[in-house]
Amino acid sequence: MIKNKEKLKERFLRDPLPRRLGALSATLARISSSARNSNNPEVVTDLLDEAKYLIEWTAAEAEIETAAELVKMQRLITLWLSAWHENNKSHSQRVLLSVQAKNWSDQAIDFSGLL
What we know:
Layout: H1 5-14, H2 17-37, H3 41-59, H4 64-87, H5 91-112
C-alpha cells in the first residue's frame, strides 16, 4: 500500500508528462530488479501498487495510443498484484515478472521521449 498516496499524486502531477513517464519507467525498473532479487514480497507488492497509480494519473493526458498501451500495462500489473502473494514463491514466476517489468520500463521510457 502506498504511503501518503495523495501527497505522491500531488507531487507527481506537477511534472510534465514526459517526466511522469520517466518516473513510471523507473518504478517499473525497480519492480524488475526487486522481483528477481528481493526476499521481501511486500517490496514488489508496494512497487506494483505504485506503478498502477502512476499509470492511472498519467494515461488520461497521454496520446490515445500511449494511453491504450498504459491501460493494458495497468491491467497486467493488477493481475500480478492479485497473484503475487503466491507467485513470489516460484523462481520462474519471479523471473517472468522481472522480464515483463523490464519490458514495460523500456516501453514507458520510449513513450516519454526522454532518451
